[in-house]
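Lab manual, section 2.4: Encoding a predicted structure.

Procedure: take the sequence of the chain (209 residues), apply the prediction step described in section 2.3, and record the output as structure tokens. A sample record is shown.
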Amino acid sequence: MKAKNFFGRGISSIEGSDWKFNSNVSNNFDKHVRQSIPMYDEIQKYICSLSEWFLKDGSNIYDLGCSTGETAKNLFKKFPNKKIKYVGYDLSKEMIKIAERKNTKNKKKIQFKIADINKINYKKNTDLFLSVLTFPFLNSQKRLKLYKKIYKSLKHGGSLIFVDKIRSSSSNFEDMINQVYFDFKIENKLSHSQVLNKSKSIRSSMQLF
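Recorded output:
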């Protein structure tokens, strides 16, 4: 029987397996992401603030890789009276269930769907696309295809607001930033082995450019 690797906050996987957004991850995702992503709550606030330039009554919004619906919750908290239509897509049914529970107050304005974001026919004249740390899990071919679909669907003056993880063009800076990033995780109560286990688990699932 293979041992389990632990990533923190109750999140684990069988040793040798890749990172997956299964029920194990989904149920602990909101806590884990705050241990793993610097300024995650601030990022959410900035997304909502930037959205204000593109949202009007009747606007369509697509959230690509909506996970637990945190962005939707924050968006409707900031704009409670906007008559906007939000659709969030994610491949994980466990994530979608949590997103629906988290956003019951605005369920008439929000739809969460289990779907591959590369296979969606998005409406034309869309005002806003959102994506928080989804693109790193797409290879270059899928990413380029998705960029083109988004561009064709946006209305003139519409926007894609996304959060990405990228590599530095300098190997020295890449090394420095990675080590500062690991320091951040350890300061947020993740153990050295949990940090290493997470890094190993995403080797084949995350592609940075």
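Check your result against the sample. Residues 40-48+59-163 form a domain with the Rossmann fold fold (CATH 3.40.50.150).
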